[in-house]
Amino acid sequence: MKNHFVATSVLVATLWAPAAFAAEGGSCHFHGNKPAAEATVTGCALQRKDALVKGGKLDASWQAVKQDRIETVDGKKGKEWRVSFKNPAAADKSKETLYMFFTPPGNFIAANFTGQ
C-alpha cells in the first residue's frame, strides 16, 4: 500500500510540476554550456520579439517582421549570438533594426536598437 501511495505521488508531481512552472518563453531557458543550434536561437528570438510586441515594448508593426541575420559576436563576457530584425515600416529610422543577444546555449541577454 505504501509503495502504491509513493508511486502515485511521484506520478502526480511529475505531471503537475511542468504546468505549474511553465511561463511564456519558458522553452527558451537552457542550462549548461552546450552551444545552441542556430535554429534554436532563431526560434527563441522570434518568441522574444513576439513577447515584446504583446507587452507593448515594440510597435505592432514588428509582429510580421522576419529575422534578418544571425551571427556570433564578441560580447562583454565572451561569444554571444546576435539576431537582427529589420522593420522598414519603423517610423523612427534609427530604430529600424532590432538586435537581440543570446548566450551561446541560447538564453536571452538583451535587446536594443544599437547592436552593442
Describe it for me?
This protein has helices at residues 2-21, 38-54; strands at residues 67-75, 78-86, 97-102, 108-112. With 116 residues, the protein is α+β, with helices and mostly antiparallel strands. It has one domain (30-112). Strand 3 and strand 4 (108-112) form a beta hairpin. The termini are far apart.
Describe this structure in a few short sentences:
With 116 residues, the chain is α+β, with helices and mostly antiparallel strands. 32% of the residues lie in helices and 25% in strands. The chain has one domain (30-112).
What is the string of SSEs from the N terminus onward? HHEEEE
Number of strands: 4
Rg over CA atoms: 19 Å
Mean pLDDT: 81
Record the strand order, biggest sheet.
Answer: 1-2-3-4
Give the helix level as a range of percent: 25-40%
Query: How would a textbook summarize the main sheet?
Result: 4 strands, antiparallel
| Tertiary shape | globular
Low-confidence runs: 5-25
Q: Please indicate the count of domains.
A: 1
Global structural class = alpha+beta
Could you state the oligomeric state of the chains shown? Answer: single chain
Q: Please indicate the percent range of residues in DSSP E strands (runs of 2 or more).
A: 25-35%
**Cα-to-Cα separation, first versus last residue:** 61 Å
Count of alpha and pi helical runs = 2
